Amino acid sequence: MHDLSPTKIPSPKSNRLSGTQWRCIGQTEEGIEYHELRFISSTQVEGWSKESGENQVEQMFSATFIIEDDHIIFERQEDSFKAVKAKDTLLAFVDGSVMVFHKVP
To answer: What contacts 81, CB < 8 A, 6 or more positions away?
Structure first.
């Protein structure tokens, strides 16, 4: 007799990010309270920003992402950037600077 119960298949690394949010505070340009990355699926991410003194956050971009070794590669329109994940921190390399994102609980 064969066991027909469902078998859990390990998910790829990209699925571990799906449904998570990451926020960068204090390393943003003037007038911006924070930037946020929202991983909405195993391949899609949205970039959001909140202006200081505003109640609403604004979506800045949508992008796809893939994970290669220890790097997360984000592709959006004509541009791309990379990040490295270390525990509950993402180090994103954007336009020549490093942005530190922390996982939102």
So the answer is: 73, 74, 92, 93, 94, 95
Residue-wise pLDDT for 52-90, tens only, equals 989 999 999 999 999 988 899 999 888 899 999 888 899
CA dist., res. 83 & res. 31, Å (int):
24
What are the structural domain ranges in the chain? 13-103
Task: Supply the DSSP string of 62-77, one letter for each residue.
Answer: EEEEEEETTEEEEEET
Which of residues 102 and 95 earns the better pLDDT score?
A: 102
CA–CA gap between residue 2 and residue 24 (Å, rounded) = 50
13 in Cβ contact with 20 (< 8 Å)? no
Residue range 33-40: average pLDDT? Answer: 95
Residue 33, helix vs strand vs coil: strand
CA–CA gap between residue 53 and residue 91 (Å, rounded): 26
Has domain 13-103 been given CATH number 2.40.128.370? Answer: yes
